[in-house]
Amino acid sequence: MTATAHALVSAAIYRSIPAPIISIPLAFVSHFVMDAIPHWDFGTDWRGRSKKNTGLLAIAETTLGITVAYFLFQGKGDALPLLSTIIAGELPDWLEAPWYIFFARKDKHKPSPSAGFWEKLTYRIYRTENIFHAKAGYPLGVLTQVVTVAFFLLLLTRSTG
Ligand SMILES: [Zn+2]
To answer: What residues form the membrane-spanning segments (predicted)?
Structure first.
């Protein structure tokens, strides 16, 4: 899903359970649960765009999403645990990024047999994460995402009152 979706749910997890030792792993796991719901994000149709544009879009959207989630869910003196929880919720996508950035190309879907260690490692991380990744086109995949985020936010904020 988009970085904004992950940031909002992660921040809500921290507000609901303000203990980093629980909220950080929970936010990390929530990433995979959310990505299992068919959705659209900037990674879905990256082959139809230049890599530079996808990268800039991803950086801009991630910065915006984290900022919005932070200001929506911040409390007194909890900047570090809140931000750590949000980052834990984004981390799976950042771990996938090296494959996209350094090795994937429009016409290249997997490493060649002669690929080096780093290429194979980054591809393995990417493949492992994508076992859980369900894709949907635009605009349906945006709708599923809005519904998913709304569901998690309601669930999490309800428990805190
Ligand atoms: Zn993801």
So the answer is: 12-34, 55-73, 136-156
Tokens matching residue 54: 């996808």
The C-alpha atoms of residue 112 and residue 82 are separated, in whole angstroms, by: 41
Q: What residues have their beta carbon closer than 5 A to ion ligand 1?
A: 35, 93
Domain definitions of the chain by residue range: 3-160
Determine whether 22 is exposed, middle or buried from the number of CB atoms within 10 Å of its CB (0-12, 13-18, 19+). Answer: middle
Task: Tell how far the Cα of 98 is from the centroid of ligand 1, in angstroms.
Answer: 14
3-state helix, strand, coil in the chain (%, to 5): 70, 0, 25
Q: pLDDT tens across 38-92, in order?
A: 999 887 888 888 888 988 999 999 999 999 999 999 988 899 999 999 999 999 9
Question: What's the CA gap between 99 and 123, in Å, rounded?
Answer: 6
Cis peptide before 139 (omega within 30 of 0): yes
